[in-house]
Amino acid sequence: MLTLFEDLKKRTPGETEFHQAVEEVLESIAPALEKHPEYRDLKIVERMMEPERVVMFRVPWTDDKGEIHVNRGYRVEFNSAIGPYKGGLRFHPSVNLSILKFLGFEQIFKNALTTLPMGGGKGGADFDPKGKSDAEVMRFCQSFMMELQRHIGAETDVPAGDIGVGGREIGYMFGMYKKLRNEFTGVLTGKGIQYGGSLIRPEATGYGLIYFAQEMLIAKGDSLKGKTCLVSGSGNVAQFAMEKILELGGKPVTCSDSSGYIYDADGIDAEKLAFIMELKNVKRGRVKEYADKYPSAKFVARDKGADHNPLWNHDADCAFPCATQNEINGNDAKNLVAKGVKLLAEGANMPTTPEAIAIAIDGGILYAPGKASNAGGVAVSGLEMSQNRLGYNWTREEVDEKLQNIMKSIHKACLEASEKYSTPGHYMNGANIAGFLKVAEAMKAQGVV
After folding, report:
1. Which residues pair with 261 in a beta bridge?
2. What is the pTM of this model?
3. Which phi and psi angles does 234 have, rounded to 5°?
4. Of 55, 137, 212, 366, whose Cβ has the fewest other Cβ atoms within 10 Å?
5. Per the residue annotation, which of 110, 122, 251, 342 is the catalytic one?
6. Burial of 217 (0-12, 13-18, 19+ CB in 10 A)
C-alpha cells in the first residue's frame, strides 16, 4: 500500500488535499484487501485512485462595469461503477484540481454508502460569488454552463451545489442548460421546488449529520438530549444541523464564518437561529452582528496566525465541524478531548486533519467521517433524481423519513464493516471499507474498463 501511495504522489505532485484523502482510505481498507486478494490482481485500487475523466476549461464573463474576467472551471468525473457521476459544484477562490480530486474521491465512497445508484464526481471554479451582483453571478453561471453542458446529463453526470453554489446559482445554470440543450431534465439537483427540486434538500446535509450522530449515541445507550454542541460554519449545513440539534433536545452554542465565531453560553435557541438564517441567507451579513444583538454572546475574530481555533476550546459534549476542510488540527483535537467532548461528527468534507483524527480517537471521542455523517445531502440529491425520473414530488414527511432511514442504514453499514474487519466501533474504517467493497465489486463485475 505504501508503494501505491508513493507512486500516486509522484504522478500528482502538489495535490496535497487529494493525497490526504487517498492516504486515509488506503490505511482503512488494508484489512479488506487482505481478505480479498483478487482486488489486488485486478488493480482495483489503482483504477479507483485515477479519475475516469477530468475536464478543465476557461470561463470568460463580463462584470457590471463591462470589464472582462477569466476564471477556470473544472469537472472531475471520478468513478461511474455504480451509477452516474454525482457530486457538487464549488465556486470559491481556493478551488483547484487537488481540492476537487479530493472531494470527488471522497464522493465515491459517500455515494456508495447511501445505498443509491450514484457514482462519484466533483467540479467547480475559482470564481468568488461574494460581493458580486445577481447579474454578474448569472453571467458567470451561464458562461460556465456553456462548456459544462457538453459533459453532463441526467443519466451521465448530475452536479449539485456546494460552497458558493446555492439555489440562485443552480437556477441560473439550469436555465442555461435548458436553453442550450432544449430539454427539461433532472441534470442538476438542488433545484427550486417550483422546477423539479425536492423538499428537504436544503436541510438534508445538516439534518442527516444529526440523525447520524443520534444513531452513534443510541448505540452507546445515549442521545442528544441535554447535550451542549459546538458547531462551526453558518451556511446551510450548520444552520440546519443547529435546527435539528434543538429539535432533539440539544443546545448549540457556537457558529462561525470567515471573519470569526460567536459563542453564546445561553445557547442558540429557535429565535436566535432564525436571526442567523436571515442574517446569512438574506442580508448576507457577518456573524459578529449576532453578538451585537444578543448580550449573552461574544464574538471572537479570526486569527489566521493562531495554531488553534478557539471555537473548539469550550466545554461541550459534541462537536460538529460544518465549515471547510482541515479546520480542526491536532491542537484543536487536544482541546476537544480536554473539554470533555465525547462525539465529533463531520458536517463538512474532511474538516479534521489526520493528526486530529488520531488524537480524537485515542482520547475516547466517537469520530464520524464526513463520507458517512454528511452523506444526507447527496442522499436527498439522489431522491431528487428519482423524483425527476418519475415526474413526481414526495411530501416533506416522506423525504424526511427516507433520509432518516438512509442515515440509519449508513450507520449500520459502518458499524458492521468495522466489526467484520476487526476494528469494532471505528467509524472511519467502517465507512471506507463498506463504500470500497461496494464499488470494488461493481468494478470487478464490469471488467477492465
Report:
1. 256, 300
2. 0.92
3. -150, 15
4. 55
5. 122
6. buried
Distance, CA of 255 to CA of 269 (rounded, Å)? 12
Give me the mean pLDDT over the 191-215 stretch.
96
Whose cell is 446535509? That residue is 205
Sorting pLDDT into bands at 50, 70 and 90, what band is 284?
confident
Domain ranges in the chain?
2-184, 204-368
Q: Which three cell numbers stand for residue 186?
A: 433532472
Q: CATH fold of 2-184, please?
A: Rossmann fold (3.40.50)
Instruction: Report d(CA 272, CA 34) in Å as an integer.
Output: 51
User: How long, in residues, is the chain?
Assistant: 449
Instruction: Give CATH for domain 204-368.
Output: 3.40.50.720
The model's pLDDT over 5-42, given as tens digits with 9 standing for 90+, comes to 999 999 999 999 999 999 999 999 999 999 999 999 99
Q: Which residue(s) pair with 90 in the sheet? A: 124
Contacts of 2 (CB under 8 A, 6+ apart): none
Known active-site residue 9: no
**What average pLDDT does the structure give for the chain?**
96
For residues 202 and 377, the answer to whether their CB atoms sit within 8 Å is no
By the 8 A CB rule, do 278 and 305 touch? no
Q: Is pLDDT above 90 for 57?
A: yes
2-184 and 204-368, same CATH topology: yes
Which pLDDT belongs to residue 321? 98
